[in-house]
Amino acid sequence: MKSTKTIYIILFLSFFLASCQLAKMGGDAKENPPDPQQRVKKNLEEGKGFRLMDMTKKGGSGKFEFASSNELWRASLDTIDFIPLASVNYSGGIIITDWYSSDSESNEVIKISIRFLTNEIRSDALDIKIFTKKCDLQNKCTIYEKSENLIIELKKEILKKAVIYEKDNPDKKIEPYVLSVPGDG
Hints:
Blueprint: H1 2-25, H2 36-45, H3 52-56, H4 71-79, E1 85-89, E2 94-97, E3 108-116, E4 126-135, E5 141-145, H5 148-167
Antiparallel strand pairs: 1-2, 2-3, 3-4, 4-5
């Protein structure tokens, strides 16, 4: 009896917390058009929805963008391919390398973190941080963030490759949402 009561309490709290989260998802009324059809159009253009008609195209599969079709993601991985990766999370939009040194005699190693702020190929799409770890003979290490020059060069190289990948992929098109009114045939 006590365990079922606990289960009911947990379920109630889960629904209560989920409803709070759903209320937040609606967004600001000022940013959304009052007309439902315009809201649908805006959401689909921003990638916040799906179209049933897309499900029926090309063998009934949905339309998904994977890492291999994201030019910015591919360009980033190709640019830092000489460094071992510690963590890669496409859905979270982050790449973190392991500590790396090109010289085995060096007491200085670097670690690169690339966060994707958008899938669009623009200069503000990437948040790149480069950390340097310098150790002395007693293995006392200091970690500090690297200068802007290396970050700018890395970002430039990634964006150049991403543009090339985008030009090589003519199939990638963004389809505008066309509002269909019932009864129009």
